[in-house]
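Mods, move this if it's the wrong board.
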Amino acid sequence: MAVRLLLAALLGALPARAERELRFRPPAEAPVRLFTEPELARYDGQQEGQPIYLAVKGVVFDVTSGKEFYGKGAPYNALVGKDSTRGVAKMSLDPADLTHDITGLTEEELKSLDDIFNNVYKAKYPIVGYTSRRILNEDGSPNLDFKPEDQPHFNIKDEF
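Not the wrong board. Structure tokens:
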């Protein structure tokens, strides 16, 4: 009861507009999260009504709004539910290229990767998280040497 009285006193002192803003504030966006490979695999576009996620450069995007491209049976469905960085860089749907590994990519492929990452995925789709591989060791322990600014083709300022 005391809390109600205090709240009423505080709200009564606010202008009507401020009171409405406090009462009808839209919910905060969902926080980003860390995805393991098995967790990310659950968002592969195969189940109706479930979000569709795709990771590029360890950044997980919600590509559900592009369901006609990434959904079940769609042309780029092979890319979703995993980190497909290499496939995006090479513009390849070959299963061998659907991996996070960028070892051996040419300068042209790395430039293409950066262009697509920035001008397609970051420009069109919301970031919902990051792959655990990006900041954890294989055994799941934290990578104490991880520094986002040291990652190839990664700029933390550009991600937000």
